[in-house]
Amino acid sequence: MRVIILGATSAIAACTARLYAKEGASILLVGRDEVRLSQMAVDLKARGAENATVAFSDLAAATDAPQQFAGFVQQLGGVDHVLLAYGILGDQGAAERDLVAAEEILRVNFNSAAAWSLVAANVLEAQGRGSLVVIGSVAGDRGRRANFIYGAAKAGLEALVEGIAHRFANKGPRAVLIKPGPTVTPMTDGMNRKGALWAKPEQIAEIAHARAYRGAAIAYAPGFWRYIMLIIRNLPAAIFNRMEI
Predict the structure, then answer these.
(1) Is 53 helix (H, G, I), strand (E, B) or coil?
(2) ω into residue 186 within 30 of 0, thus cis?
(3) Are 6 and 32 in contact (CB under 8 A)?
(4) C-alpha angle 185/186/189, rounded to 5°?
(5) Do 204 and 162 meet the contact criterion of CB atoms below 8 Å apart?
(6) What does the pLDDT look like over 1-36, one tens digit per residue?
(7) Active-site position among 20, 86, 150, 220
(8) CA distances from 172 to 18, 48, 168, 181 (A)
(9) Long-range contacts of 200-205 (CB under 8 A, 24+ apart)
(10) Any bridge partners for residue 174, and if so which?
(11) Taking a C-beta distance cutoff of 8 angstroms, is the pair 84, 135 a contact?
């Protein structure tokens, strides 16, 4: 098993990498933080990875994704699974007032993620096998006053990955969007993270890892969010707009 992880230093990506290491996979960790990536590679080898190497890239700013991805595949000696797990929450209040801040949220969470997803999809389709797993968010299910710009980017990413999954139908590869609810990660530092609805990154990683092998193209994580978001999506606007969410 050969796995490319884009945004490997994210908490969910790091936990997923450990699951692949237990399987003896060869893993390529891609991101900006050279020190953390190198430390992760050492740790993954100790956990059972056949090999763990690193590639340094500012994925959100890359203008040559096809060439870079081809280099990643060559460095790893091929690819079976691709996990895309980076993003930023941003400051909703600032983004509402400052178009540059809004564009940054959209560029990182949708534009760049879409580009890497399409590049990976082309490689997987050409070889007729493999999995693309992308981390999205339940925030994409309905625009909420607290984070609707971030949510808009995640909604677009969901449509894109679902379309890739449709494109892959009967061709061999698979594409999956993982939709976590609130998760205890560095992205959510500063929030009130108490309550039963908050998940740990290890829980999301278990689902992402499992769905790389089998299951539908959309996976809520944990699964109970499917029912919560079903209710939220169908609330009348008059009620929804009064909710402090």
Answers:
(1) strand
(2) no
(3) no
(4) 100
(5) no
(6) 999 999 999 999 999 999 999 999 999 999 999 999
(7) 150
(8) 26, 28, 7, 29
(9) 201/11, 201/12, 201/14, 201/15, 202/15, 204/12, 204/15, 204/135, 204/178, 204/180, 205/12, 205/15, 205/16, 205/18, 205/19
(10) 131
(11) yes
Sign of CA dihedral 73, 39, 1, 83: negative
Q: Provide the angle, in degrees to the nearest 10, between the axes of the packed helices 148-168 and 113-127.
A: 10
135 burial level (CB within 10 Å; 0-12, 13-18, 19+): buried
DSSP 85-108: -------HHHHHH-HHHHHHHHII
Residue 61 identity (one-letter amino acid): A
- 150 catalytically annotated: yes
**Token pair listed for 52:** 């763990």
Q: CB under 8 Å, gap of 24 or more: what pairs does 195-199 form? A: 197/228
d(CA 132, CA 145): 31
Contact 84, 16 (CB under 8 A): no
Tokens of 195: 């309550």
Q: Tens of pLDDT along 113-153?
A: 999 999 999 999 999 999 999 999 999 999 888 899 999 99
pTM attached to this predicted model: 0.93
Which amino acid would we find at residue 188?
Answer: T
> By the 8 A CB rule, do 37 and 31 touch?
yes
Please tell me the distance from the alpha carbon of residue 188 to that of residue 165, in angstroms, as a whole number: 29
CA distance 10 to 16: 10
Place of tokens 């929450």: 89
Residue 156 to residue 111: CA distance in whole angstroms: 9
